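Usage example:
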Amino acid sequence: MTPILSAFDGGFGMRASWDIFCSVIDNFGDIGVTWRLARQLVAEHDQEVRLWVDDLECFARLCPAANAKDAQQLHQGVRVQHWLHDPLQQDPSPQDQPPSASAPDYSSVKAADVVIEAFACQLPDAYIAAMAQRARPSLWLNLEYLSAEDWVAGCHGLPSLQPRGLQKYFFFPGFTPDTGGLLREAGLIEQRRRFQQDPAARQQFLNSLGVIAQKNSRLVSLFSYENKSLFSWLDTLAAATRPTQLLVPQGRIIAELQEWLGVKQLSLNDQHQRGALKVQLLPFLSQPDYDRLLWSCDLNVVRGEDSFVRAQWAAKPLLWHIYPQQENAHMDKLDAFLKLYCHGLSPAAGTALQAQWHAWNSGLNMAKSEQALRQVWPELEAHSDAWCTQLSAQINISTALVQFFRKWL
Ligand code: TRH
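Running the assembly step on the lines above writes:
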């Protein structure tokens, strides 16, 4: 990876080299976000991108073309490099390393023009040294987790002095113009609108998943962590007059779903009817197909960060299971987003939505809030579309990153 900073003519010139470091904590969000960002920097900004990921198995779930055994591989223009994430910066002894692991020799690695340390994953010390040794040290950015909290805008873009005279800048995604924005591919909204205005395309996509959308049935996608509210929510859907088809990609909620259904093992495309509710298990989809599932449904239950954002681009009502944190810190994040999102909603709709999101994120009974939401559903549908239109007017995070770099030069 040869730094090509010299090719820059005052920042309006050629491609820069980018290294994005991702350490998979758990679940899919870390790699989900960084893989999407890496692809966008290549496809829309013609940048030279290397994505360092420490869990190739997890990466392969999101990139079916990937081989979890190959320490180096190229996908959609992104060079994917396996690394051994060692937060304590101790050289792992050989027996500690999994057989497929291959710790690159960082002393021979040329640090990129721009280095993104995703979610404070801690870069290898030898790589940081390489960043400092460049003729023009690398731009070092810490890509933070998404939050709607007020303090984020004030911290976005702030530098923090690091050893070896390096500066690390905190880069916050966000929902307002004074943040780094959200991941949104060029043309995504137009593509989603075309799909949603084409019933044949929706039906063809759903059929490809083995889903036959019933007339007058509400389609709901479910992607969440284990949740004590699930049973009461499903009971309410089963007892409703309007039929619901619940489409569940394989994931952490399946065990509780099996328990509620009273079945030992749900298999792919199994369909189980309970009253007005039909439940269908789907495979874990590619990211583009998961987008289309979100676009096809009338309500999307999502979690974490990336699916949460993708559901907002679907312009449909959503129910968010936020990633649980210690001391309930996640509830502040949930309320911060609700404060933004409920702006412009009628008191009845805002109250019903907040009641349901709080119940879902606190493991409480969902019956009352589900009933209340039904009364305001048309307003929520219109609101989710208006919210998406408002959000999509903002800069997207890949463009914001490239602009940040050009200003820094
Ligand atoms: O998997 P997650 O729970 O990831 C979490 C969050 O990112 C959280 O913020 C972070 O702190 C934690 O990881 C460490 O949820 P998330 O963010 O929605 O990521 C899921 C990814 O999986 C997303 O890119 C969408 C993708 N996906 C598919 O590609 N196919 C599917 O079928 C489904 C259901 C999801």
